[in-house]
């Protein structure tokens, strides 16, 4: 957890009020609070008079100077602050962002193992501008646009590729054809799973298992289908009929043939219009946190929303039509924090690295086959050596790759006597030549 500690200021209101209001006339305090509230999981204010304060605590205006307190009082004050902190966070494990003068933290930092001082070394005249820049950078990094950029870089799957996912715990997002957000495929749903190891089975309940009682996504798409056609069966489709008792109770109104037909149409929609990407997230807590943060971040972005043609516009649910997500819950929770985005980014980079390694191996195998064939043909002509150009291999190989990648693969196919004869790069064309002795 990331915890921010701000110190009180000389500028204050002359009335009893919440902490953040008390110091709101100080632009530096307000800027620090705005950034801390965006970046940290918890924010506290350090007061010479009151010790550790939560942001909604009400206090009276007092003038008490921390700098003139004798050392023993500062130590007692710090011990009291640590005691209060320990009730809400872990001073030894959590990270602390500190925006305070030295007199406030000099006896605290020995008890806090992980500390950051964003304004360390910044001149007083530049602190406000620095805080504003920190907030801007934080908003950009944790934005809906950046989340789309990352998930658009992740491996994209279709319904019949679920078994190819190389891990069993994670968070997934789905995309739909023709839906765009700032040049990226627009996310139209976010999801995860609670039980460990259930990522693939959860995706199967959406894409393969034709039973809306196991998938709220299927249920919502079915609602949109029925609502679009003004079908009165919508009321029955909405009912919870997932247990044998419920099926028996409503057997006189449930039309099994009708429901099977709707399920088939939902499957057709998912299999023809929807793709998905996912990232590995082992921790149950992190999975739920990223799901919550991502949903809220998307929904709270004023520019995020559906196109006029989005099928969800036919949903009878206001939250779905308005948000552009096949979701009703969690739209206004805590948005993504930096730690959440860093986890997403790390997992996407891991996928890219794995993809690059796989591609590199495929290139090496293909180049080796081409060279072996060319050499076998050359041996039949009884020549001493064969010069092979990278540009000739690029024409034959089926994988999209660069001359540099081809040359590296050609080097791996070289024997002790073989030589690299030519490497040119004139910014117009690139060519490499290897001489293989027979």
- How far is it from the N-terminal to the C-terminal residue, by CA? 64 Å
Structural class of the helix and strand makeup? Answer: alpha+beta
Q: What Rg do the Cα atoms give?
A: 30 Å
What is the N-to-C succession of helices and strands? EEHHEEEHEHEHHEEEHHHHHEHHHEHHEE
Number of helices: 16
Question: Sheet bearing the most strands, described?
Answer: 5 strands, mixed
Taken as a percent bin, the fraction of beta residues is 15-25%
Summarize the amount of helix as a percent range. Answer: 40-55%
Note poorly predicted spans. none
Average per-residue pLDDT, rounded, comes to 92
Strand order of the largest sheet: 4-3-1-6-7
* Overall outline: flat
Features:
438 residues, alpha+beta, five-stranded mixed sheet, four-stranded antiparallel sheet, 14 strands, 44% helix, flat
